[in-house]
Each structure stands twice: as C-alpha cells, then as structure tokens.
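pinging the channel bc i need a second pair of eyes. not urgent but kinda urgent?? the chain im working w is below, pasted from the shared doc
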Amino acid sequence: MRVTEVQGDVEALYRSDGARLWSAVRGYAGDRGIADDAVAEAFAQLLRRGDEVRNPAAWVWTTAFRAAARELQQRRTTVPDPPDSAHDPAMSDQRVLSAIGQLSDRQRAAVVLHYYADRPVKEIADLLGSTTSAVSVHLFRARKNLRDLLGDDL
C-alpha cells in the first residue's frame, strides 16, 4: 500500500474513532494531558507502522490505553479531573467520575472500556493484556465498589 493510502486510512480512523478514543482514555487516566499524549502517540505509531498492522482500530485503542497506563504508572495519578463535557457529555456527572477515579487502575479501565467505549469483555482483555475472567472480576468488583461509593445514586 502506498504512503498516501495509509495516511488516508489513518486519517479516516482518526475522524471516526479519535474523539471517542480520547474521551475513553481521558476517563481512564483522569488527565487531559495523558489522553492527548496517548492518543497522539498511538496514531503516530500507526502511521509509522503503516499496513503492517492488521486491525488498525483495535491496535490504536490498545496502544493508546497502554501508553496511558505507562504514564499513570510513572505519575501514580489517583484522582481524575472531570472530562470536558464538550467531548464527553455521557461522562459529565462529577460524582460518578469521582467514584470511578477511586477504583483501581484495572477496574477503572474495565469500566470505561465496557460501559463507555462499549467494548466486549474479550476485547477489553486483549487491550489490557489480561484474561476474560480477570476482566469480568474487575467489572464485578468495580460495580460493587461503585455501589458502595454512590449508594442509591448509581
């Protein structure tokens, strides 16, 4: 495939998934800067790799979340800022975001990917380098923790 075709495919993917990916990474990381950097890095790497990537959409999601996880590991960030409602009206409830921010990294990633990004458990496991059983446990524990944190407001 020619370079211009690869660039066109990556641009189309960015236009279709970029904002949703940024919002999901933002919800997971709790930091606009991490989301900006992780999404930019993922798409830049995709451009460099070109057509050697078999499933660009899945690959860019995986790469963005792994980049964000690396940055979180370095920063040890625990309390997220609320996302911009212009990008993310579905996640604008501050109490819910605050509660999600109190979950473990794995639970937070599972919740954001499953309920916001609408990813199946199998795909979440692949994205996180985990198993479907572990992701199911993270979702179960996250729901319990969110019920405890939010009470009847959930």
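so Residues 3-29 form the longest helix (27 residues). and The helical segments are 3-29, 32-49, 56-75, 94-101, 105-116, 121-128, 132-150. — does that match what u expected or am i reading it wrong
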